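We were asked to recover a plausible sequence for a given structure. The inputs and outputs are reproduced exactly as logged, with field labels preserved.

PROBLEM: sequence recovery
POSITIONS: 126
GIVEN STRUCTURE:
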């Protein structure tokens, strides 16, 4: 990899890291959801600084070329992110269902109280 390319990639990764940290500090993203992105960014920074490391890892795993290794790692990262989002979505779905049930019960109680008050007013007026 050429030095100019390494510098451009490193600058881009540092900007991404700064944006992620900024969003966490502004409370736009929760830290528990950002950890995968931070780990990916850190790994890419290391691989950019040491390009021979990717070839060594690919050889160690028996992968033909470093570019195939990049695609393999990308696929694994995508699968991890999808799984994390699926778990989060499932949790949120359960919370929404529970909140809806509580809201329906409260609405029913309010209706019953209104009905009881209306009956009391009828009996007092009669």
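RECOVERED SEQUENCE:
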């Amino acid at each position: 990899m050429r030095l100019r390319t390494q510098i451009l990639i490193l600058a881009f990764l540092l900007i991404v890291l700064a944006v992620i940290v900024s969003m966490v500090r502004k409370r736009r993203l929760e830290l528990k959801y950002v950890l995968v992105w931070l780990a990916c960014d850190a790994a890419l920074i290391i691989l950019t600084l040491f390009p021979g490391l990717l070839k060594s890892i690919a050889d160690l795993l028996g992968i033909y070329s470093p570019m195939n290794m990049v695609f393999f790692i990308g696929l694994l990262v995508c699968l991890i992110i999808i799984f994390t989002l699926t778990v989060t979505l499932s949790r949120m779905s359960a919370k929404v269902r529970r909140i809806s049930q509580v809201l329906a019960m409260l609405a029913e109680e309010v209706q019953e109280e209104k009905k009881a008050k209306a009956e009391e007013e009828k009996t007092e007026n009669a």
